[in-house]
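## Example record

The block below lists the input lines for one assembly entry, exactly as stored, with component labels intact.
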Amino acid sequence: MSYVLQQLLITSAEKYPEKDAVIFGDDKITYAELHDKTNRLASFMTQNGVDRGDRVGIFLNKSVESIICIFSILKANAVYVPLDPVAPAARISYIIDNCQIKCLLTSSAKSKTLPDILSKTAVETIIVTDNRHEVAEGIDKKPILWEEVLAARYAGVPEIRNISSDLAYILYTSGSTGTPKGVMISHLNAFTFVNWVVDYLKVDENDIFSNHAPLHFDLSILDIFCCMKVGGTLCPVPETLSMFPIRLSTWIQDNRISVWYSVPSILSMMVLHGQPDQKDFSSLRMIIFAGEVFPVKYLRQLMTLIPGKQYINLYGPTETNVITYYRVPPIPPDQTKPIPIGKCCENMEVFAVTKEGKIVTEAGEEGELLARGTCVARGYWGAEDRTGKVFVPNTFQKNFDEKIYKTGDLVALNEDGDYVYIGRVDHMIKSRGYRIEIGEIEAALYTHPSVSEVAVIAIPDDLITNRIKAVITLKAGHFLEATDVRMYCSEKIPKYMVPEIVEFRQSLPKTSTGKVDKPALMRDSVT
Amino acid sequence: MEIKESIRNYIKSELVNNKDHRELSDSDQLIESGVIDSLGMMKLIGFLEDNHSVQIDDMELVPENFSSIDAIASLVEKKMA
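Predicted structure tokens for the full assembly:
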């Protein structure tokens, strides 16, 4: 069997042609239909210049079409690049330029949110997943309509020409120097994780998978590809549903979800406002979470409100997908310490290295977590220097001549041999599961002509891990309000990175070496 | 201050991040347009509970009650009555 992701759909379409592959509200598609439509779109793209290894962007909201697009791009032997459908145009433009997206799959409505960047970037082909002709004003490139694509002739399943070490997708994450970085994931990288999930969690064709995470967030990999591998049914969660916990818990019940996977903050909201104990969750088998630390008090409540389910904590940065797991046992009422991130998944190895360069072996010792194996990504697109800093030669173990990944996460071993997350070695933070580089927010703020000095700090929060606060000094004679700052930021960086709290000061506190004294700002903010 | 005005001021000063939404009207869509996201919803509920002394029940936390400034104001007025 080919170790390429499109093979998963091809195999399941042969085994379960009549089964529903994707259900989104009233919209659904069987495996046979998904196979057929992806063959058409893939063939169309190939005939229109999309070559092996080319990057193809997906700029769409959750929909059946977005899943069609993923598998079509893979069947065209190309690389899919999911673009955050609510990211500011400047960021989309950066990503399109950065990895040279020539073909963009979008909808006519979404294309209108990209004023003139489609004209200025290298995008040559725009395919819209509907039949409306109108796109953003000023675009001279005529979009190709869905009906045209689906009417395209094709001769059988597009030939598999990619191999397992080729890239399957690129996911852009926050970068500390002010621009996002594209994590390059190969088919084999993804397969290593997908195969482990299917074996270890024993998911099968009877499972109904939620897809809560957006496509540009790596949690979506489990949902989409594990589902396709086993021939299950995928149910993308409408984006706005997360705001309404009672509706979300009803949605899980009504869609008979059996495998739920999301960031913990969504589940905490469900505990607080979703009344999950009032729902019929008899179909639900497992609740998987990743992306941030799950506050123990909410996790314990969740396990009480929805008893008898498997609770699994997964851990791993985008650069490795998932590398450790922890099956959560009943949590004692007096436990306050967070649950571990656990032990390493199969076919990979993790180890922690102390500041002195020694591998952690004793309980209680701390170190930075490193990962090796086929889970480790190929690096960052077009950024050798950035790649070289964290994808490093394995100088810690003898006999292994390879690149390993430094996660930047500080961990400790506990008595059970599980790793426990402690914090970061750098300035990256998490908020609602999103990775955020403080430096990227500060870089965005420094481009404002009125801003003199900036310090961004993360204020710990029970529900969403961190709230972002910006403390700003203005140039003499300049005046800004918090709203102006937020509006400016939201043109540069994604909404989840925009500072929620903005404070103006005459000056920023400094340490004796002249650096901004962030601990002092933290003390002022937390008390 | 009138309830609707206070809600409008809060949304405009705290939640609006996009200059396209600067001239928000009371009937404009807040959820589909992305003015309110999940974090914004938490902040808004905190604001309503602290400043208008209403307790938003779980069952009231539904799109119909938060779709526009008009809808939020009518929810708060109903609860205060």
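Residues 3-80 of chain B form a domain with the Non-ribosomal Peptide Synthetase Peptidyl Carrier Protein; Chain A fold (CATH 1.10.1200.10). The interface with chain A takes residues 12-14, 16-19, 22, 31-32, 34, 36-39, 41-43, 58-59, 61-63, 66 of chain B (CB under 8 Å).
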